[in-house]
Amino acid sequence: xxxxxxxxxxxxxxxxxxxxxxxxxxxxxxxxxxxxxxxxxxxxxxxxxxxxxxxxxxxxxxxxxxxxxxxxxxxxxxxxxxxxxxxxxxxxxxxxx
Length: 97
Prior knowledge:
The protein is an alpha+beta fold. The chain has one domain (2-92): Alpha-Beta Plaits (2-Layer Sandwich), CATH 3.30.70.100. 37% of the residues lie in helices and 30% in strands. The protein has a 4-stranded antiparallel beta sheet with strand order 2-3-1-4. Strand 2 and strand 3 (49-56) form a beta hairpin. The longest helix has 17 residues, at 15-31. The radius of gyration is 13 Å and the shape is globular.
């Protein structure tokens, strides 16, 4: 399994909006992608920091979303709520419980 991690800082007062977009639009779009296994959206309201973690069955499944434009579409949905753009990082999931 593979994980795409994106870290950024949200604009002040935009956290609830970002959470709604992630829950109501990004997660459903992910569920339509081949190999999508789930997602987490972690936030810190004190620092406005947010971390998105999406889980994928294979590295190819994850990269397919980058090549097709799926990833950029999701990033664009959240762009109005973020101060800093984030760069996707890829990790191999070695332990999951």
